[in-house]
Amino acid sequence: MMSSSIVITIVILAAIAWVSYLAVSALRSRGSEEVASNLAPGTTDDELETKRLEGIQLSAVVLSGILAVSIPVYYLTESNRQEGFVEEFSETSIEHGHEWYEEFQCGDCHGADGGGGAATYVEKRTGVTVTWEAPSINDVFYRYDREEVKFWLIYGRGNSPMPAWGLEGGGPMNDAQLEELLDYMHSEEFQIEQEAVLAETEPEIAGELARLDGAEAAIAGAVLDQQQLIADLLRANDIQDDLTAIAEEAADVLDDASDGIDTDGDGLSDTAEDDIGALNLRAREVLLIDPLSLDLTFQPDDPETNGVPDLEAAEGLLATLRMLADSPLEDDVQSAPVLGPIADSIEEILAGVADDDGTDGDGDGLTDAQEQQLAGQSANVVSTLVDGDLPSVNLDPTMEETAIGVPDLQAAREAVAALNTVALNARVTTENIDRILQPARDSLDSLVEAAINQKWEFDFAGIAANNQISVDEAERVVGIYNGYCARCHTSGYSAGLAFTQEAGSGGIGPALWEERPAVQFLSDEDLVDFLIVGAEPNQPYGVNGFGNGRMPAFGAILSTEDLELLAKWLRNGDLRGFGDDVLEAGVAP
């Protein structure tokens, strides 16, 4: 069958030929005439009934035949042509949606491929800045339909880092952009196959159980970070003047960077490159508290570090770390609690000195392996106290790009900007210390209380006994709940274990503890049916429920067996397995 483009081409060519023929005929018949054409006698029948008339009639018949054939052919190919337009429009929309995904930085939180990620957020109860867990969205259409996803995009999710993106919700994207973004999110390019979603169930459960196993260590880390924040606040007044002076000097150097010899022709004089590196080092030493004692490089082929025998230097490093980690914050503002774990690691290294019979190349009493470990821990001190705020800068005057791909002039500007930021932060902190120090201490108290109460805990044996299931099944149902339900139905879950309240305490979704699901659903089967399809907009569910479309469907991502296990556990009411009396007190035994 001829395509529409061929038919159109034939019609156009025929039309051009017909017009050309008429024009040529008219030119041939033109001659000098004394009488106006409209007044001249008409053509006689003898003149008309010639081959000329037959030719004209034949041309008309041929053109009519072409039209008679081409119009149906064009009509028959119209559906294919429209399908092509639809496909082209869809591809263009998906391309635009991909552009919006990148331009509005959706991947910063949800991952470049939509597989999930994290966002910075201030947890409401404690005021602590946390790493909020952002969900995967490359499987979102197995949980929500298009209109439900669009709702979340337009209005965001309150009390979370997810902002409103639609104009109606106060965001920057118009409806056309949202539709294109949805087209991209719904495309095969973005959404993963259902088999891949189902294959994620076991790793998700295992990950959640491992998360619980590491809870105490995670919360200890959160407490340590908050203690360090308080230490940094207290120390800001002591370092602000030094950092401000260094930042101002660096800005002056950059202003005059083009003056003097410029060996590599990069727009920075040799002196400017050296000075910026030196000023960066000075600032790093200010942040490092005690650079002579903390910034040590142990070499397996050198028995001394900074002129001190390696073993003595290592013991001195340990003593300094202990002093900084353990000294009271109120009495010594140079405390650095975050150095405690590094001190523990160095203590373990030194504890094995007498028993380690490895190679000791420089004969200093430390094996080569131990010296390498000590060098690593010393570098860890520097990265912990300094690198996050002020990366090291060392510019080479003989190279346009000391760091590959980064011109030295750009690196110098970034270094000066970093110095200004560190100095500004110290000044702002000092000016507002009375306002921010007490909330920081209150946040620390909240974290310590969380570590004591352990509201994230589950008693798997108790869950198994209460629900007449095995301990393995108890662990599995908790893993399913934390992996797929807790984000909405357990307060604080996405902020981290230190901020997690009792299971089922409610958040974006309603509370589930104290047998509340059993009030809404009169049997496990009723609850399973609801979990499969979720809350359908404007449709009733359970005893008194009426759907708003916010509760996702899980029938496409969880097996019937897992949903049955989940329904049974939810309707039982004692979600943590410790008993109602403990649950009401909010304290794990």
What does this entry look like structurally?
The protein is mainly alpha-helical and 589 residues long. It folds into three domains: 96-196, Cytochrome Bc1 Complex, Chain D, domain 2, CATH 1.10.760; 217-436, no CATH class; 460-585, Cytochrome Bc1 Complex, Chain D, domain 2, CATH 1.10.760. The protein contains 24 helices and six strands. The chain has helices at residues 4-29, 45-48, 51-76, 78-103, 107-110, 146-155, 175-186, 194-199, 201-213, 215-255, 270-287, 291-294, 310-326, 340-351, 368-387, 408-431, 433-453, 460-467, 471-484, 486-489, 516-520, 524-533, 560-572, 580-585, and strands at residues 117-122, 129-134, 304-305, 308-309, 540-541, 545-546. A two-stranded antiparallel ribbon has the order 1-2. Helix 9 (201-213) packs across helix 19. The radius of gyration is 38 Å and the shape is flat. It starts with a helix and ends with a helix.
State the order of secondary-structure elements, H for helix, E for strand: HHHHHEEHHHHHHHEEHHHHHHHHHHEEHH
Task: Compute the separation of the termini in Å.
Answer: 79 Å
Strand content: under 5%
Report on the biggest sheet. Answer: 2 strands, antiparallel
The helical percent reads 55-70%
Oligomer: single chain
Question: Can you tell me the number of structural domains?
Answer: 3
Pairing-aware structural class of the strands and helices? Answer: mainly alpha
User: Low-confidence stretches at least 5 residues in length (pLDDT < 50)?
Assistant: 581-589
Strand numbers in spatial order across the main sheet = 1-2
Please report the number of helical segments. Answer: 24
Using only C-alpha atoms, the radius of gyration works out to 38 Å
Number of strands: 6
Categorize the overall geometry: flat
Overall mean confidence score, pLDDT: 88
